[in-house]
Design goal:
The chain has 143 residues and is an all-alpha fold.
């Protein structure tokens, strides 16, 4: 596989993908550290967005073999990923508010744990969005 784009674009894409994986590992480590077994709906919704987003990335990456032929599909996928990121931001904010309402005054540690998990999930979505932006940059440069 010889990509039709320059080394800098490859490094940017791979780096953003590595960052997304690192964020996923950090989220799992936090869940394990705090022994979290019950997840609020907002956390489940954000996890579902992450799963859907990674499916879109799995579809997009092979399309990079021929950017000119696949530019419309690639742009459509990256656009969806960015919209998913916006939706995750809304869920994140609502989840923090709900966690504070439920745990803040009476169970500060419970709130801190939930906030940390929500923040990890948000960082995963942001990292996946960075991958989408790297792909979109390649499309803009080479389509």
């Amino acid at each position: 596989f010889l990509p039709p784009f320059d080394r800098g674009a490859i490094i940017s894409l791979i780096s953003s993908m590595a960052d997304a994986i690192d964020e996923m590992q950090a989220a799992v480590a936090a869940i394990d550290l705090y022994d979290v077994t019950m997840f609020e709906q907002g956390m489940k919704d954000m996890a579902a967005i992450i799963v859907d987003a990674t499916r879109l990335l799995a579809e997009a990456i092979p399309l990079l073999r021929d950017v000119p032929a696949n530019h419309k599909r690639l742009h459509g996928l990256t656009e969806r990923l960015v919209r998913m990121g916006g939706h995750a931001d809304t869920i994140h904010a609502a989840g923090l508010k709900e966690a504070f309402r439920e745990h803040g005054p009476s169970d500060p540690m419970g709130f801190i744990v939930r906030r940390e998990i929500l923040n990890h999930l948000e960082r995963i979505v942001d990292a996946v969005e960075d991958v989408a932006n790297a792909i979109d940059g390649i499309v803009i440069d080479h389509a």
